[in-house]
Sequence to fold (228 residues):
Amino acid sequence: DQQVKQNSPSLSVQEGRISILNCDYTNSMFDYFLWYKKYPAEGPTFLISISSIKDKNEDGRFTVFLNKSAKHLSLHIVPSQPGDSAVYFCAASAAHSARQLTFGSGTQLTVLP
Amino acid sequence: GAGVSQSPSNKVTEKGKDVELRCDPISGHTALYWYRQSLGQGLEFLIYFQGNSAPDKSGLPSDRFSAERTGGSVSTLTIQRTQQEDSAVYLCASSLDGARNQPQHFGDGTRLSIL
Fold:
């Protein structure tokens, strides 16, 4: 039973345009969400996080939106750059097991020059 | 070094053998995590160490898997009597104090292949 789902395995976007990566979750106990980026043969790198008390968090070109009623979050990257090409993982945790991150299966983003 | 270091980077072994994977966390980080990533899947939590507290082993898939952390720093993940389904990338991460707002920093992983 996948509690965090990234239904799009891949996404291609033109350089300069907006990239929107989506994530859905089923566990209503999740209250903290993160996005990680992963290049081939490297470990994931933390990008941005959001607590369930917020519906938006912004850091430079990256913005995460959380819709608790829909159990949906998204990562917006604008403007997209070729160096953003990587696999993006959504992750979530619940207060009672805060150390355990539950990850989605990832979305491969390709930014075309 | 500045980041989380894992060794070996690649390990190929025969089914039934034992393997040990090593993780050196970022200096000063008291929290250490092990995950594994099977092909086409997300990361799966295995075990968490925080300081001198008892580890959270709730993610270990079977009793063939064990981990220890000596002196609050280096950790080893041991898989006994390996099976083909153990083939995966094993990732270690550390964070400053395990607080939720402290991001987990990952190593580059050990790619384990069981023949």
